[in-house]
Task: inverse folding
């Protein structure tokens, strides 16, 4: 049963409630210095809307500054960054941050305002990650619309040769991602925080950015070398997605609230496991999902030869069973950019036939259960903890959009799972 009292924080800093009536300089400030007072209970009713509002305040100031520099830059690059960020998805990372902050006892207006601003920074960081990811993967679609580099390319029309337009779109998207990252860093640096939280928040933020890059590099290196190591695939997924998508947002929220070390560790352990389950579910969605629901082309990871755990497991199982037909399908399909829909169906049959899909589904269930056990070990404020637990459960266990049910097939026993991705 969830405890109804806030946890006792041994050697914890004093609460931030004394800032509620502090001077404007001690409150959260907009990008242009205007005070932004936030009532946590009102935000609880619609967290995504509050994040959107915080983003609007941040983006308005950044676009004004961009316009002072140059009108073309403001419209064609900064404006695209702003529109991409505004049109974001479900704001999952910023919601995790918010409910973590609330579950750890954050209840005053200054703390709430700081959490919303850092949530907005997370959304800008996500813009950077997705825009760069689309360039690296050569993905034409994002959220059911042309990716940013494709938009820039198409805006050139017939004014320049197609190859030059494509190249311009790619480099412009790299700059757009860089700009989003710079804005995100600025927001975190400019957010007023209590002295005891500043160091923790900035350390978590710094680690998260580096982990994201490290994971992306390992992912690209795996594509280059054709690596099909299940342990390496899990390691890349751990760095690139599990930490960035779930664990670090939870840590940021706990840090803003001034949580103690024990609570921080419990939330991070929960986020690590749930984040891995979330990424493995996303891999299944890429292979089996419906583009009408996922907003991107099916089989992108397969055509790009991404070293996903799903593909690595299929190869390992086919090799162990000396299944030559399955190995031939995988060898000619993984990393084949010209793979047809019929060829993709063959790969799907192998993923099912080798038991790789069933094994991944089983691993997701184990990781989900392990993550929720870690979460239940933390002593948190009851109502926001229940909201956070439901959100984590959804991330860990809900089928990917458009993902058909897996055929009934037993999964072979594997070693006990860890949440560290191969460590």
Result:
């Amino acid at each position: 049963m969830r405890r109804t009292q806030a946890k006792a924080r041994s050697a914890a800093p004093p609460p931030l409630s004394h800032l509620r009536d502090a001077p404007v300089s001690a409150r959260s400030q907009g990008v242009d210095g205007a005070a932004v007072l936030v009532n946590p209970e009102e935000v609880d009713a619609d967290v995504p809307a509050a994040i959107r509002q915080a983003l609007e305040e941040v983006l308005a100031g950044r676009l004004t500054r961009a316009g002072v520099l140059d009108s073309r830059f403001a419209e064609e690059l900064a404006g695209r960054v702003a529109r991409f960020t505004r049109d974001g998805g479900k704001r999952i990372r910023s919601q995790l941050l918010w409910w973590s902050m609330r579950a750890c006892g954050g209840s005053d207006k200054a703390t709430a305002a700081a959490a919303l601003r850092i949530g907005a920074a997370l959304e800008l960081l996500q813009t950077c990650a997705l825009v760069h990811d689309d360039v690296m993967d050569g993905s034409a679609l994002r959220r059911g619309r042309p990716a940013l580099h494709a938009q820039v390319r198409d805006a050139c029309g017939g004014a320049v040769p197609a190859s030059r337009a494509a190249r311009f779109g790619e480099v412009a998207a790299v700059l757009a991602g860089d700009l989003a990252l710079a804005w995100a860093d600025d927001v975190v640096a400019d957010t007023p925080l209590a002295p005891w939280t500043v160091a923790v928040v900035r350390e978590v933020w710094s680690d998260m950015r580096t982990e994201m890059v490290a994971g992306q590099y390992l992912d690209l290196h795996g594509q280059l070398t054709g690596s099909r190591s299940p342990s390496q695939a899990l390691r890349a997924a751990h760095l690139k997605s599990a930490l960035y998508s779930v664990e670090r947002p939870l840590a940021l929220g706990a840090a803003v609230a001034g949580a103690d070390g024990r609570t921080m560790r419990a939330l991070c352990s929960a986020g690590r496991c749930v984040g891995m389950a979330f990424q493995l579910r996303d891999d299944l969605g890429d292979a089996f999902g419906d583009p009408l629901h996922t907003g991107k082309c099916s089989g992108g990871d397969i055509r790009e030869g991404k070293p996903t755990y799903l593909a690595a497991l299929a190869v390992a199982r086919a090799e162990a069973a000396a299944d030559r037909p399955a190995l031939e399908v995988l060898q000619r399909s993984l990393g084949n950019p010209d793979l047809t829909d019929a060829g993709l169906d063959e790969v799907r049959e192998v993923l099912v036939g080798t038991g790789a899909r069933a094994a991944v589904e089983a691993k997701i269930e184990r990781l989900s259960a392990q993550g929720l056990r870690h979460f239940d070990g933390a002593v948190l404020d009851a109502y926001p903890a229940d909201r956070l637990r439901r959100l984590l459960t959804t991330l860990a266990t809900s089928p990917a959009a458009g993902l058909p049910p897996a055929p009934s097939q037993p999964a072979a026993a594997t070693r006990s799972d860890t949440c560290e991705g191969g460590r």
Remarks:
- DSSP finds 17 helices and two strands in the chain.
- Strands lie at 141-142, 145-146.
- The chain has two domains: 34-192, 200-423.
